[in-house]
Amino acid sequence: MRKWGFVVGGLLVALLLAGVVSNFASPHPDGLDSSLREGCTVDVDGEITGGRCPAQQEQEHEIGGPLADYGIAGLDNEFLSTGLSGVLGVLLTFALAGGVFWLLRRPRTGPAPTPAGPRDAAPSDTSVPAPAGSHEADRPDAPAPSQG
Amino acid sequence: METLAMHISNGIINGPVAALFAVIALAAMAYCVRRGRQDLDDRLAPMAGLVAAFIFAVQMLNFPIFTAGVSGHLLGGALAAMLVGPWVGALCIAVVLVVQALVFGDGGVAMLGLSITNMAVIAVAVGYLLIALLLRVLPRTPTGLAVTAFVAALVSVVVGAMGFVLQYWLGGTADLGGNLAGLAGTMAVFHLFIGVGEGLITAATVVTVAKVRPDLVYALRALKPAAPATVVTVGGVR
After folding, report:
1. What CATH number should be reported for the domain holding residue B57?
2. CA-based nearest distance B46→chain A, Å
3. Has residue B8 been placed in a domain?
4. Among A67, A93, A114, which would you mutate to test the B interface (most chain B Cβ atoms within 10 Å of its Cβ)?
5. What one-character-per-residue DSSP string does A49-82 give?
6. Quick check: is B238 in a domain?
7. pLDDT confidence of A136, banded at 50, 70, 90?
8. pLDDT band at residue B238 using 50, 70 and 90 as cut-offs
9. Which residues of A touch B106 (CB under 8 A)?
10. How many domains are contained in chain B?
11. ipTM of the complex
């Protein structure tokens, strides 16, 4: 199916970006961090050395964890550490988002291919209240299969 | 240890305001689930998973902006809104932010509501409203699509940054000595430049997807150029 071809291709691009290109990212603090450091002096390592700025109020992260700050704890090779953490992040994000969206999706209106029968009342696979299924007619642009 | 924080760290905004925005973000995401379900079908669900994964990847790619010491990275609100729609798009950004906070130590967990409000709610909403407006007045050409994506992305970043300034005004932990305008100005200037990068990445990505699989671009499906009143997702435009 073409749908999956595109998704697989897109995932490969994302894996390449997070796994390899991420090592060439700028190491400087981003716009938000930089704004919060206004008023402080910073040394070459990015540590605050003096002055007064909002960033001084920063506290420790609650969790940290083995992948904290986009690296693998204990892996000394920085290139591998950043790249592998990026690859894991892409796969995890895809699995989580894709899984949640797959569970949330509308039941097929056409002939259902599932062995469970054409439809079992309301989808009860999530804890989210379903919108009563009354909105399906709202969409004038019901997706038509584009492939021949 | 080098810190590579990209989102709001713990301690920057006080607890009560962080909790207030956690409630706001939760309510907004619940509403997005409700509305997004109508969009999510067998085609959109895997695409939305890909969009979330792609945004996670590109958010790692900090690019330098005008001054040597400052970088920026994609936020992805307008990109997600354009590719998978505002409701599912907001959920994509929220998933990315949750993964970053819980697994990568990026952005305090207690600060998640603030970040989700800025990047998944405000940026996506602003981005999609602009997309809906511009796609109707601009020609449906690669150039029209690129301009739409660029402008929507740039503005969404700047407005999202102002969301943080509002939050800092409500609950910032450092005494700015009444100089909130200074913070607002710095944030605006930095994010104007970051917005240019965001606009370029968003335009390049959307035009590429539209070239390969135009049927996978939500905004092109949902926003019919010459059929007003059939679009249920956008209020206030025309």
Report:
1. 1.10.1760.20
2. 6
3. no
4. A93
5. EEE--GGGG----S---TTTTTS-TT---HHHHH
6. no
7. very low
8. very low
9. 69-70
10. 1
11. 0.91
